[in-house]
Amino acid sequence: TEMEEIQDFALALEVSALEDLCARLEATAKAGAAEGLIRGELGEWRKRRAEEKEEQDRQRQEARKVEEQKASEAKGAAAAAATGAPWSTEEMGLLAKGLQKFPGGTGGRWALITQLLHSSGFPRSEQEVVAKTKELSEGQSLRSMGAKLTTENTFQAPKAKSAAAKADSAKAASPAGPSPGSSSEKAAPSAEWTPEQQKALEGALQKHPTSLDKNERWRLIAEDVPGKTKAQCVERFKFLREQLSQQKKG
């Protein structure tokens, strides 16, 4: 109520200001003039209180922005520390190659990728490899690097290499080349895997757990991999597993 507001106003005044107000009220002869004086002082107090509240809100917002900026800088510093020293172009290429060579779901994947870097003279830790991969996965850098590796042998199953060799032999024997319906010409494209198909296979293997019925699981996986059949997905999985097994033996 207005009376409560007047009480709050009086309590908010300094002692000297309150004494001065009382003196002015006593000097006012008319009751109406005294009421006008009170209302005028009350209006000024309301205005000052609103300005003070606005300033406090502004200061709180500024403080919040400073805290958010500090938190963002700390997060960036932590991410930079996790990835270690700046990565060279060669290291980035090896990282992309390792991620393709050892897809998601491969046992000891990060250790194998780290070992690949070590074998080329780059002593990165597993933590640095994981942190850098996470950083790249949020942008397009890793995808663009992976596109450069599509022609490497690690992206072709043994049947693809065999089919390519047969095609070369056929070309040498006959300048006209194999007929459009020949089996060797059809075999190569079906055995080749693009980075997009490899990525889709990795995602599907994680998406559909091994607890599913075996046939049903591979059917669902094949549906998620464009341009590949269930048999081709199974064959690709076995090929990658065999590669990993051979590397461990070596």
From TrEMBL:
One GO BP annotation of this record: 'de novo' cotranslational protein folding
Signal sequence segment: none
One Gene Ontology cellular component: cytosol
CDD domains reported in the protein's UniProt record: SANT
Region (Disordered): 42-87, 121-215
Biased composition regions of type Basic and acidic residues, renumbered to the chain: 42-73, 125-137
PANTHER family the record matches: DNAJ HOMOLOG SUBFAMILY C MEMBER 2
Protein name: Myb-like domain-containing protein
Organism of derivation: Alexandrium andersonii
